[in-house]
Design goal:
Blueprint (H helix, E strand, L loop, with lengths): L1 H26 L8 E5 L8 H12 L4 E5 L7 H5 L4 E2 L4 H9 L2 E4 L9 H9 L6 E4 L21 E4 L2 H10 L7 E3 L5 H4 L8 E4 L12 H5 L2 H10 L2 H10 L2 E5 L18 E4 L6 H7 L2 E4 L4 H7 L4 E4 L3 H7 L8 H4 L4 E2 L2 H13 L6 H11 L6 H12 L1
Parallel strand pairs: 1-2, 1-4, 2-3, 4-5, 5-6, 6-7, 8-9, 8-11, 9-10, 11-12, 12-13
């Protein structure tokens, strides 16, 4: 029954796309769909490279017919609507725009599609019209086999670091010119960040095996117990008081429904949710980052600030979620790796004592990893996409 259901869904999408493609033969002549650049992130948010690129387009290149896919119920809808045209995802207009678009620009592979997973298969069969530009959600530390060619067929794949670029260039199998060293669009702002607040950010990534669990099952996990222990560590709380710092805890997008299970019992600890925090703003305003495997640590290292990784479940994570890639956290990382919350608390205290300056070895690694930094990543991305057309 599952196979039959899956086949029917694939068939429905394929038929819908075929009808939209046929309608697009006429629609592509209309100003609304002519030479359209369709842009998206996850369709339910706009806080990443897609938003920054769309803002750049509407301000610097108003001649481009651009539209952004964003759900009107998203807390980010208003900020995108102020910039330019928006399209409600999962509608007939979305499907028609997808079929007409000259280029699909997204942070995720097939992110502009009505269903990114099923349309991957259609694109693998080379049935999707338009150029495919993946401007990325972040720098990759692990291997991403779904982005290898085949099965992925891309026209632009953006990299932002020297080793990442070299790894993708030689291992992902894309034709010459697809993999480009352009930098993440959101990095244009990072070097313009003001002096950080007296704030420490704890931002772990998600776990596939925790997604959509019951509250009780989630609270029984090592993930929940580990971060609850960190947020309530007496030594850490004492250090926050002693140095007049606060701590902000922010869960990954996929685990946001569990935010309410992490109540803050201390005035210097704040648990923030999707509706009241912007990830890039949190990164820019914080003086130190504690994460695990999340690619946000690249953003933090790019700004030259101290960080540490709490990897209490390293073996399980790389066995069930991502394959290890070119990046080794202990050999290449921009901060130490710990397995226990109390070790992280001790390192935070040490960083407070030395004025939140990153250690020399980690600063040197960042310099070598990123190469030349800049504030023209949106412009470079625009030029690369324009070159495809």
């Amino acid at each position: 029954m599952k196979r039959i259901k899956s086949a029917l869904i694939y068939g429905g999408y394929a038929l819908g796309y075929l009808l939209a493609w046929c309608a697009g033969l006429l629609a592509r002549r209309l100003p609304r769909y002519k030479k359209l650049w369709l842009i998206s992130e996850r369709k339910t948010d706009a806080r990443d490279n897609g938003l920054h690129f769309f803002r750049y387009l509407t301000r610097e290149h108003p001649e481009i017919n651009a539209a952004f896919l964003i759900d009107r119920d998203s807390p980010d809808y208003g900020r995108v609507r102020e910039l330019g045209r928006v399209i409600q995802p999962w509608t007939a207009e979305h499907l028609l725009a997808f079929a007409c678009a000259q280029v699909h620009v997204s942070t995720h592979y097939m992110g502009c599609a009505p269903d990114m997973y099923r349309f991957r298969r259609l694109n693998e069969l080379r049935l999707i019209r338009g150029k495919q530009a993946v401007i990325r959600h972040g720098i990759s530390a692990a291997d991403a086999p779904e982005l290898h060619c085949p099965p992925a067929h891309l026209d632009l794949y953006v990299c932002s670091a020297v080793p990442e670029y070299q790894d993708a260039l030689h291992r992902y199998g894309h034709p010459e010119g697809v993999v480009r060293m352009l930098g993440l669009c959101r990095y244009d702002r990072l070097l313009q960040a003001p002096a950080p607040k007296r704030q420490i950010l704890v931002m772990p990534t998600w776990r596939m095996f925790l997604h959509k669990l019951s509250d009780e099952a989630f609270q029984a996990s090592d993930y929940y117990r580990t971060y609850t222990a960190l947020l309530n560590d007496p030594s850490l709380l004492a250090a926050l008081e002693e140095w007049d710092y606060r701590l902000v805890f922010y869960l990954h997008y996929m685990l946001q429904p569990y935010t309410r299970l992490f109540p803050s019992g201390h005035p210097r600890v704040a648990v923030r949710g999707l509706g009241d925090a912007d990830v890039q703003e949190l990164l820019m305003e914080s003086a130190m980052l504690i994460t695990d495997y999340s690619s946000v640590f690249f953003d933090f290292a790019y700004m030259g600030k101290p960080l540490a990784c709490l990897q209490f479940d390293e073996e399980l994570f790389f066995r069930t979620q991502y394959r290890r890639g070119y990046f080794d956290f202990r050999r290449d990382g921009f901060g130490p790796v710990f397995r226990r919350p109390e070790e992280v608390s001790g390192y935070i205290r040490a960083c407070l004592e030395r004025g939140m300056e990153p250690e020399a070895q980690y600063r040197a690694r960042a310099e070598q990893f990123f190469g030349e930094r800049g504030t023209d990543h949106c412009a470079k991305t625009f030029q690369a996409i324009e070159g495809l057309l």
